[in-house]
Amino acid sequence: MTATTKTQEPSAQRPAQSSWLPKIDPSVIGPGLALILMFIVYSIASPHFLTTQNITNVLVQSAPLLILATGQTFALLMGGLDLSQGSIISLVSVTAASVMMNYGIVPAAILGIGSGVAVGVVNGLLVGRAKIQPFIVTLGMLYMVAGLAMVVSGGSTIFGLPHPDVDIFFWFGGGRIGPVPVPLVIAVLLVAVAHFILVRTAMGRHVFAIGSNEQVAVMSGIDVGRVKIFIFVVSGVYAALAGFLLSGRVISGQPLLGAGDLLLQSIGAVIIGGTSIFGGRGGVLRTLLGVLVIGFMVNGLNLLAISTFTQQVIVGAIIILSAWVNSFRRRKNR
Amino acid sequence: MTPIKPAADFHPNGEDVVLQLSGLKKEFPGVKALDGVDFELRRGEVHALLGANGAGKSTLIKIVAGLYQRDGGTIRLEGQEVSFGSTAEAMQAGIGIIYQDFALVPDLSVAENIFLGQEMRNSLGLVQRAAQEKAAQELLDMVGANFAATALVSSLGSGQRQQVEIAKALRNKVKVLILDEPTASLSHGEAERLFEIIRQLADEGVGIIYVSHRLEEIAPLVDRVTALRDGVSVGSYPTAALDRQKIVSLITGSERPAGAARPARAARPDLPPLLSVQGLSRAGEFDDVSFALHPGEILVLTGLVGAGRTELAETLFGVRHADAGKIRLGEKIVHQKDTRDAIRNGIALIPEDRRGQGVSLMLPIDENVALPILRRFRGPFGLARRRIGAHADQLIDRLSIRTPNARTLAGALSGGNQQKVVLAKWLSTDAQVFLFDEPTQGVDVGAKAEIYALIEGLAAAGRAILIVSSDLEEVLAVADRVLAMRAGRIVEEFENNALPASRVVDAITNG
Question: Model pTM?
């Protein structure tokens, strides 16, 4: 039993908080090792894998997913989920394209991205103010917004966008600054911004506080509703930007652009990266790792001529495996 | 009911010991919950287990029930040394337990609840509903229930739910039945009915451990009494040999001469109150509560669990809203919409549910401490981590929080140190009024003394302190003034000078 005498520990006795050696977050080891292992195996198995051309391709193709998953990370960090991201992509795509037909690229960008952000705002208000479960809110919005995208486009792809607007549009999704692909630059910038928000702003820390224990956050005087609105707006903004990039790449407005497995990949990438689905633990840098794992995994399997059907099996297994590894680590900590 | 049971076939003597615990030890991080407890239960006796909060009663019964594993000591059931790896093993061996808050599934029927986890199955593995319901009905009849085994638990009242719990405990042949605060949520009539059942079971030879705070129940029902204090037994006595005074002194310990050890106080009743409450009511929780809290004063609100104290504290902190009455801060009447309003008004609440409401176990200490005031650390490049760390370091030193550093996760700390983190969090805000809800629950003796010293330091600095506590020792140790609360009302007020423990106990228990 501790003695009743007070032991004054001078702060000098405590080890310094940050040493010059970067402390490796143990949860990064799993996906990190997976990535390294993949690089080794694929490099040996295929001569086409470790080429500048191929690596750049993978990175460019992963950019929209990276943006999407970065937004998704916010939702998972609070212990929630944003299922409406895919539908937002479709809505942004058709809105931007149909506005561009008549008014050019600038109004198209503003209204297109704006439409996606609006969905995020509605999500946020329903979760933060009406206090409905994020799962239910975003599931409902998944349907509503997907339907809306169909209504806006009349159900068919919008082709034949006017010049020169369409060139600028493509520049966002497939252009280059010197040797560097534009979507990659945008994605990296967005990850950096998200990381800064999460780590260095009060709002970002409040996201973690809510995710780790919402009651404590309430009792500490945090406006939990406002933080939740913020979270879903961020997720909406990021999904909208991903949608804009993606439809620039296909230079058209497609009502089913986000209807595939992008949404599930986005959630999967966050989980593979090691962010807890119960919230409070994780971050966008881990998500970056998760996206790379998915991107290179699929690319390598393609190079090895393994069918997309088999690929799905493997990606699913990796999601479960990484969650399992994470839970293992948590139990050991207990 | 007679105080001394006419012995039927069973003779409460040494040969008939059904359960024997010797030198039982259990340690939680930072707390020695049990420090070598001896306890003996005979067949057919009702044995009361008494003790203040944190004395180790729950830990003891949870070990017997197989929920916790002991760190040391032996358990003998009918002379055989046993060791239960799980609650299922304990159940199989004949230990039945009824927890304070019922463990029933509301949307299942009574019969399904009774056989939960031990369903009767036919050869295909399907549940035999009819047989189950018939058996359940027999058990219900045994405990004198007036409802059907097919009823949904959600349709039952709390007395009836308790009967379901007892029937469930009797599903297996029980040798030992443990009841934890069984009357806490029962009406008088329901409690009477329960006592009859307990008596009847004892007559059939079941050994019964009865955990309770309510002293008035003990005399007529119980054969023997064992009191725990700070994780050790302070003795077992036949009920006939005890009076109320003796029981109270067993629970509280008689080391402390009333009022003597207290340091000089800073209470300034001459100054206008910092916080005053008038006629505050909230339906079903508390009713017409009025008091004033002066600078430098430590006011303790005591009472039993369910007396409405936590609800009152949460109302003062804006978590709940009063139906009627006024809260004044200084001269000003305030209406607090939420916790943010309360914090802005200079109020702090150190909640009872530390892990649920006080600290975020997944966050490091420095972020826990800075949580309400994060915006203060804004710098040109976002939050200044170094300043957050420095702020926490300063409080870690001031409160002697034992931790490797400020980035350690709060979940890695002991209960006492977690409580200090919560306290550090509120010292960071410029609160004038501190509400403590059971501040030393689950905290070891050393940390307890430190927390008391901190509270007294706050009072000396002119802050006003309201402590909700059911720990009598604590009440006597820190209070300038005591308000006794029962069933949502303040029933008595005591100045601390020569405050007799027994009068406090009387006030909070006698209904």
Answer: 0.77
